[in-house]
Amino acid sequence: MTMTSTLIDSLRGGLIVSAQAYPGEPLRHPETMAQVAEAAAAGGAVAIRCQGLSDIAAIKGRVSVPVIGLWKEGDEGVYITPTLRHARCCLAAGCDIVAIDATRRPRPDGLTYAETVAALHADGAVVMADCGSFDDAAMAHEAGTDILSTTLSGYTGEREKTDGPDVELLTQMIEAFPQTPVICEGRIHTPDQARQVMEAGAWAVVVGTAITHPTSITRWFDAAVRQANTR
Hints:
This protein is α/β, with parallel strands linked by helices. It is 42% helix and 15% strand. The protein has an 8-stranded parallel barrel, surrounded by 7 helices. Helix 2 packs across helix 3 (53-60). Converts N-acetylmannosamine-6-phosphate (ManNAc-6-P) to N-acetylglucosamine-6-phosphate (GlcNAc-6-P).
């Protein structure tokens, strides 16, 4: 078994926790995110997904589970690890797997998705494709991507934004690419939803906001309390 297959196999059947804070938020600090990641690993997370070079480096130094790294730049178009340079910087910061935008939109550096993956594979990297549709997944699969994910479903205009995880897309990807691990990510807010996608055949599940974003969680509870008060 190769190191890549061993790494990917370590994710199978497990929970990946996304530890990210948005710009301007109180938790937006590498040490804080490292503590959050460490707590998630103690709770059973098989990997941590995180954003930004400082966070990747800090988290890698605090957890023994694999780190999935990405670098967001901008807030529209291709902004999740948008270029080969961004991906290589994530790897240099210490991530074990690099997550990149796998949509069919133009990439800022002019490279195609396939060219980006080929260059990263030449570097020895393991690549996770953040897809927004089935056509994205097909392109990523054709490029030889190591892991496919539903991360961008509902955010690129190709698919409706579902209330919970996009189980339909997940199922389509699993059935079409049975030899490639397919991870479900996006709008998984309850243990029941996590169980649902695993029962649908996901290789692993990524949960972020519901575990690591207290502002959003507080808003959910606040909305419920306010709704009850109006009755």
